[in-house]
Amino acid sequence: MRLTIIGSAGSYGSAGISCSCYLLQDRSTSIVLDIGNGSFSLLAGRIEPGEIDALFISHRHHDHLADLISFYHYLLFVPGARRKRPLLLASREPFDALALIFAVDLAGIFELKIVAGGESVVVGSMRMEFAVADHIEGTLATKVIGDAAQIIGYSADTAVTPSLVSFFAGVDLLLGESTWLERPGGISGGLHMTAEELAGMARAAGVRELVVTHVAFPATASAAAELARATFDGRVIAAEDGLVIDLEARANPDLP
Question: How many domains are contained in the chain?
Answer without folding.
Answer: 1
